[in-house]
Specification:
- There is one protein chain.
- The protein has about 120 residues and is of the alpha/beta class.
- It has a single domain, classed as STAS domain (Transcription Regulator spoIIAA), CATH 3.30.750.
- It is about 35% helix and about 35% strand.
- The protein is built from 3 helices and 6 strands, in the order E-E-E-H-E-H-E-H-E.
- A 6-stranded mixed sheet has the order 1-2-3-4-5-6, with helices on one face.
- The longest helix is centred in the middle third of the chain and has 17 residues.
- It starts with a strand and ends with a strand.
């Protein structure tokens, strides 16, 4: 099984790819909206629900995003908290060699679980 869908709002693009092993949201472009939750919450909720329903991890891939304002992190925090409290499996990928990504995403490490159900992975490149 494989499916994909693309969500676009202004300069933000989120590509959702699903296969037998994972649900992946790949973020590209720039997220600069004042109220991004209106656009992002349904995408994150839907992906998290599909991930949990079929026991596949949700991979949030931010390695190619150019910029995210602080408002963008709010729906992301809500999704991570929901996954932590409701039993989701989330792997968040970011570029540790980009200072802004390293600083921003490292702050989300508080959501990581000891059993690695929720894991933040900083990678170079």
């Amino acid at each position: 099984m494989h499916s994909s869908h693309v969500f676009i709002e202004n300069s933000l693009r989120i590509e959702q790819d699903e296969n037998d092993s994972e649900v992946r949201l790949t973020w590209t472009g720039r997220s600069t909206e004042r109220e991004p939750a209106r656009f992002l919450t349904p995408i994150l909720d839907g992906a998290l629900q599909r991930s949990r329903a079929e026991a596949r991890p949700l991979v949030l891939d931010f390695r190619s995003i150019e910029y995210m304002n602080s408002s963008t992190f709010t729906p992301l925090v809500v999704a991570l908290e929901q996954a932590r409290s409701e039993g989701g499996n989330v792997r968040l990928l970011f570029r540790s060699n980009l200072k802004w990504q390293n600083l921003s995403f490292s702050a989300l490490r508080i959501f990581e679980t000891l059993d690695k159900r929720i894991e933040l992975c900083g990678v170079d490149g």
